[in-house]
Amino acid sequence: MSVYKQQGRPYYMYDFQCGGRRFHGNTQTANKAEARAIEQREREAAKQQIAAEHAAASAFRGEAPLTLSLAIARYWEEAGRHHAGAATTWVDLQRALSHFGGAKRLDEITDSDVAAYVAKRRGERRKGKEKAALVSPATVNRTTIDLLRKLMTRARKAWKIPLPDEPDWKVHRIKERGELVRELRPSDEDRLVASLADGYRDIWRFALASGLRLGECFLTWEQVDFEAGVINVIQKGGRPHTIPISRSIAAILSTCRGHHDVYVFTYTARRTIKWRKPASANRVKGQRYPVTYEGLKSEWQRTRDELGLDLRFHDMRHTRATRLLRSSGNLKAAQKLLGHADISTTAKFYAHVDMNDLRSLLDAEGKSAPTKNRLRGKAKTG
Q1: Among 105, 167, 174, which Cα is nearest to 143's?
Q2: DSSP of 50-83, one letter per residue?
Q3: pTM of the prediction?
Q4: pLDDT of residue 382
Q5: Which helix (H) or strand (E) element contains residue 374?
Q6: Residues near 147 by beta carbon (within 8 Å), at least 6 away in sequence
Q7: What are the angstrom distances between the C-alpha of 337 and each of 185, 220, 228, 289?
Q8: Backbone torsions φ then ψ of 59, nearest 5 degrees
Q9: What are phi and psi for residue 240, nearest 5 degrees?
């Protein structure tokens, strides 16, 4: 057994070769018998790791079946961990892995398998709480059908894995309620300003001023071009998008300068946290840290529920578009701001009038409506 102590060090080290690779490390024990047991465990782990890597290489060369476990591991490394909501993607991937089993071949996932998975997810409660509402149709679609479709699309297009019997995703999609275009009322805007925590208030105000999606709001200073007066982001689908720095956006950014060298939006830690892993996730009270996707979602949901508001964070995008359309009547400008590739998308979701708009139009029509006498006069002369 190749365990040894370095001169002047209390703990045994292990150092061995496996599959042509070197594995070495600290056993964190001064007992030789314990150190040997640890080294043996590391040898077994190394053998399993190399075997898994060989199996993955064979599968991706088409020499062996591609299992769901291997596909998910690669998808996570190449795409999932880079999502704005990476933590949510990870949970969804692990849920699928638990349901189907890691040994399930990707090309053997059938329409029947997908139907059963969707049915199971539809019967689950939000956050696993017994008294909570059922998971919404939109969430079921996003966490089952959309996830598996993305995984298989990547396998087919990027990894060149043939999937001749890929499920018909449209068949399994659950009907979602129509898109509700909810607009933030000025009175509720004031309440949110007063209630959102420091740091989170800035990114919320930015979302409302810019019309960007939640995942596009986590800016770095490199994305902000003050000289050109623009902000550059990558939209869903990987498309680049540029928005102007308006006066309101400039005011928000000015309050954030000097807080962090890399990230624009940060918050002040309200308590010290030392138990998280990795250590970079720990916090020191009073210091500033970048706002995260999960952190913002939690803060938004907490504040929204406390205020009794039936609003999603995405409704800030709706509000920005609606206000722009109301003030300008320019659908093309709204399309440009929102980054829609097709103006029909803008028209579908944002070319609407609310009750106040409708009341104003009816009142204006009433003022210009002809009187009875004028109508009679026209009838006589006709």
Answers
A1: 174
A2: HHHHHHHHHHHTTSS--BHHHHHHHHHHHTGGGS
A3: 0.62
A4: 45
A5: helix 372-381
A6: 89, 92, 93, 96
A7: 21, 20, 16, 29
A8: -65, -45
A9: -70, 145
